[in-house]
Amino acid sequence: MPKPFSSRPLPALRRALPLLLAAALAGCATPPPSAPVSPSAARPVQPAPAPRADAGAPFTDTLGMRFVRVPAGEFMMGSAESPQALAKAFPHAERRRLADLADEKPVHRVRITRDFWLGAHEVTVGQFRQFVQASGYVPESVRDGTGGYGFNPRYDPSRTERGDLFEGRDPRYSWQNPGFAQTDEHPVVNVTWNDAVAMARWLSEREGVTYRLPTEAEWEYAARAGSRTRYPAGDDPQVLLRTANTFDRETALRWPRWRAQAGAGSDGHAFTAPVGSHAPNAFGLYDMIGNVWEWCADWYGENYYARSPTDDPAGPASGKVRVRRGGSWHTWPLYARVAFRNWNTPETRYVLLGFRLLREQGPKR
User: Fold this and answer.
1) How far does CA 67 lie from the centroid of its chain?
2) Distance CA 75, CA 48 (A)
3) Of 204, 187, 232, 194, which is closest to residue 353 (Cα–Cα)?
4) Which end of the chain has less neighbouring CB within 10 Å, N or C?
5) Strand 293-299 with 353-354, pairing
6) CB atoms < 10 A from the CB of 219, how many?
7) Which of 197, 204, 186 is nearest to 292 (CA)?
8) Hey, is 274 helix, strand or coil?
9) Beta 211-212 vs 293-299: how paired, if at all?
10) Neighbouring-strand partners of residue 355
């Protein structure tokens, strides 16, 4: 069975299947047994500190990107929820989907040992355009001539060989055209991991400080902002309708096959939303859940949690696919949980996938 973009393929097929297949075609598998929580993880964990009055105000860099200081701290990473517990919260989810979440375990203690500055918003179309125009960089979807993916209301996945949810790859689609209207304030999509890293390197040279993608641990720490619930705002999937841009009733009108998976109301956006359209989390970060999936720095490791270091884990030393986190405007509530992990090849470009940047140093004094 092919892999959905909002989930992962069967473990036995992960190296062979294309990495951009339709969300309705998940494989079924029995996950390996979870490793036990380590003794250190069993001890009470100190909550992530709230931003202090003297922690430094948010600032905007020369490209117009706003950054928020995330203080060092520790948290419990991952989820220990059983398929049975998830079935109660997500009654329309197929059992095989609930069983394919073993890589969220074991829950383990992580310490982020240094403060960092994280983009308050996902990188926007306008900011990415400034980078392209100023640097001369040619995004991968243009450079390799194959294009990206896009929304076409006349496109029928059932008539295609791979059953991709969106039309593509096609040179008509790129970061400038995902098939639906965007302004400079919307999050850029159809950007590869390589594109994101190229922008970070260019900014590092321009500003004289290090820009990069966040690690998976930094991302989850920042997204949780001291919470231990399924979503930053709580456990009930209904909180997404007022706090995130995910798969809602309005979006489901275009994909009626999955209407049962949608939120019961509308979050106000059928496609991407201008960044910052919903309230921020406790750290002052917007859209950590929903709007677009966000590339992380790490190689993906299915069993990495069982052996990752406590301090500043950076993912496996090598791999074939990179981590993406946070869900998108087309992501079902089950997959919009903070703990959910996903991945794609570094050259993947998709209509649901963007990024935000981390800056290692605050404003110059």
Assistant:
1) 18
2) 6
3) 187
4) C
5) parallel
6) 25
7) 186
8) coil
9) unpaired
10) none
The tokens for 69 are 């200081």
Counting beta carbons within 10 angstroms of the beta carbon of residue 263, is it exposed (0 to 12), middle (13 to 18) or buried (19 or more)? buried
Contact (CB, 8 A) for 149 and 120: no
Q: Which of 118, 350, 334, 125 is nearest to 220 (CA)?
A: 118
Q: Read off the pLDDT of each residue in 53-67 and give the average, rounded to a whole number.
A: 80
Cβ partners under 8 Å of residue 90, min gap 6: 98, 237, 333, 334
Q: Is it true that the peptide bond before 206 is cis, omega within 30 degrees of 0?
A: no
Question: Do 323 and 296 contact (CB within 8 A), yes or no?
Answer: yes
**How many CB atoms sit inside 10 A of residue 35's CB?**
14
The identity of residue 122, as a single letter, is E
Percent of the chain predicted with pLDDT > 90: 75
pLDDT confidence of 263, banded at 50, 70, 90? Answer: confident
* pTM of the model as a whole: 0.86
290 closest CA partner among 325, 257, 328: 328
- Would strands 342-344 and 322-325 be described as parallel, antiparallel, or unpaired? antiparallel
Which tokens sit at 297? Answer: 């720095």
Kindly state the helix (H) or strand (E) to which residue 222 belongs, with its residue range. Answer: helix 216-224
CB 125 within 8 A of CB 183: yes
The end-to-end CA distance of the chain, in Å, is: 55
**Distance separating alpha carbons of residues 316 and 35, to the nearest angstrom:** 18
